[in-house]
């Protein structure tokens, strides 16, 4: 099965990438995997404080994924696979692609204006190191344009 990997966060471009991936998955009989990234833990001298910070980050990431998954099911009928991982996004994405041979593409979207975003910048500049195609979706597309292009 063809799986489209999408990284979700609070940015508007994450929604663009998710919609595009969902539309492609529906049209190709595939699936979507949503990845939420938690930042690497910062060292805090007191372990109780550090545990609280990490728990808050995990809950925030899980909330983002749950909202994105709900939108995906509502709009496309697809039930996505969900992954929440902690660490450097570039490294985690490469690990997931290596672990999941059915991933057909990494789908990212640029910011609506300005710099394209750290993941797009990294993978567009180093896409030769990816084992799957990189789909970069313009972040300024509205739903109608995404539907037409996907």
Compile the SSE list and pairings.
Blueprint: E1 3-8, H1 12-28, E2 31-38, H2 47-76, E3 81-86, H3 89-99, E4 103-109, H4 118-125, E5 134-137, H5 143-149
Parallel strand pairs: 1-2, 1-4, 2-3, 4-5
Helix pairs in contact: 1-5
Describe the protein in words:
Helix content is 49%, strand content 21%. The protein has 150 residues and is of the alpha/beta class. It has one domain (3-149): Rossmann fold. The chain has a five-stranded parallel sheet with strand order 3-2-1-4-5, with helices on both faces. Strand 4, helix 4 and strand 5 form a beta-alpha-beta unit. Helix 1 (12-28) packs parallel to helix 5. The longest helix has 30 residues, at 47-76. The radius of gyration is 16 Å and the shape is globular. The two termini are 18 Å apart.
Brief characterization of the structure:
The protein has 150 residues and is of the alpha/beta class. Helices cover 49% and strands 21% of the residues.
CATH architecture level-2 label? 3-Layer(aba) Sandwich
Percent helix range: 40-55%
CATH class: Alpha Beta
Distance between the ends: 18 Å
Query: How many β strands by DSSP?
Result: 5
Roughly what fraction of the amino acids lie in strands? 15-25%
Major sheet size, sense and barrel closure: 5 strands, parallel
Please mark out the parts with pLDDT under 50 across 5 or more consecutive residues, or reply none: none
Instruction: Name the structural class.
Output: alpha/beta
Helix count, DSSP H or I runs of 4 or more residues:
5
Our Rg estimate from Cα atoms comes to 16 Å
CATH superfamily: HUPs
As for the CATH topology, it is Rossmann fold
Give the total of domains.
Answer: 1
The dominant shape is globular
Task: Provide the succession of SSEs.
Answer: EHEHEHEHEH
Strand order of the largest sheet: 3-2-1-4-5
Mean pLDDT: 84
């Amino acid at each position: 099965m063809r799986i489209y990997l999408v990284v979700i966060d609070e940015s508007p471009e994450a929604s663009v990438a998710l919609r595009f991936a969902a539309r492609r998955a529906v049209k190709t009989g595939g699936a979507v995997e949503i990845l939420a990234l938690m930042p690497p833990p910062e060292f805090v001298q007191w372990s109780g404080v550090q545990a609280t910070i990490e728990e808050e980050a995990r809950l925030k990431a899980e909330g983002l994924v749950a909202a994105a998954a709900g939108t995906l099911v509502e709009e496309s009928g697809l039930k996505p696979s969900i992954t929440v991982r902690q660490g450097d996004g570039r490294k985690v994405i490469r690990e997931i692609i290596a672990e999941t041979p059915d991933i057909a593409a990494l789908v990212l979207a640029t910011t609506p204006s300005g710099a394209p975003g750290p993941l797009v910048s990294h993978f567009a500049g180093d896409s030769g190191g990816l084992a799957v195609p990189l789909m970069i979706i313009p972040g300024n597309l509205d739903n109608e344009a995404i539907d037409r292009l996907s």
